[in-house]
Design a protein that fits this description.
alpha+beta, Ribosomal Protein L22, Chain A, 2 domains, three-stranded antiparallel beta sheet, 5 strands, 30% helix, RNA-binding, rRNA-binding
Length: 159
């Protein structure tokens, strides 16, 4: 008999040396962090930024890793980690007047996308769905990213 212990299983996709600045990729990554997989694909298809296409490919690749390798359910995938780090600057030479050349530095970035199947451990996300309704009362189990964060006074009660 094989015993399967429920673990926190996450799948990742890493894109390195993507030719764009990290700042431009971060404004797209901030929009998709914490969202479901299907909602993320719709957002990335409709946003007008150039950074959306490589991020779309990475999200799709991470989901394919989870579905093929670990048997995840596509409908219950959630983006748990989305980060952008600066890469090395690609150096190019541009010809200038009188036979001289100037270096042009093109920024690159490394993008990491992490997905998790929430259907595998529903008990862990029960705290995410419930949060305290009384202002000022914050339990240790309460996650401040729930819907009533602003009405509960959890983040903004300091003056």
């Amino acid at each position: 008999m094989i015993k399967i212990i429920k673990k926190k299983v996450e799948v990742y996709a890493l894109g390195q040396h993507i030719c764009m600045s990290a700042h431009k990729a971060r404004r797209v990554i901030d929009q998709i962090r914490g969202r479901s997989y299907e909602e993320t694909l719709m957002i990335l298809e409709l946003m007008p930024y150039r950074a959306c296409y490589p991020i779309f490919k990475l999200v799709y690749s991470a989901a394919a890793n989870g579905i093929h390798n670990l048997g995840f359910n596509e409908a219950s995938l959630v983006i748990i980690k989305a980060e952008v780090n600066e890469g090395t600057a690609a150096k190019r030479l541009k010809p200038r007047a009188r036979g001289r050349s100037y270096i042009i530095k093109r920024p690159t970035c490394h993008i990491t996308i992490g997905l998790k199947d929430i259907s595998l451990d529903e008990y862990e996300y029960s705290d995410y769905l419930t949060c305290s309704k009384k202002p000022g009362l914050i339990n240790k189990n309460t996650n401040l990213t729930c819907r009533d964060t602003y009405s509960s006074g959890g983040l903004w009660d300091k003056k």
